[in-house]
Amino acid sequence: MILIVGLGNPGREYAGTRHNIGFDGVTALSDKFGIRLGTKECEAVTGNGIIDGYKVKLVQPQTYMNNSGRSVAALMNYYKVDVSELLVLVDDIYQPVGQMRIRPSGSAGGHNGLKSIISCIGSDKFARVRLGVGEKPEQYDLADWVLGHFANEDEPKIREVLGRVTEAVPEILDKGVSEAMGKFNVRIKE
Question: What is the pTM of this model?
Answer without folding.
Answer: 0.96
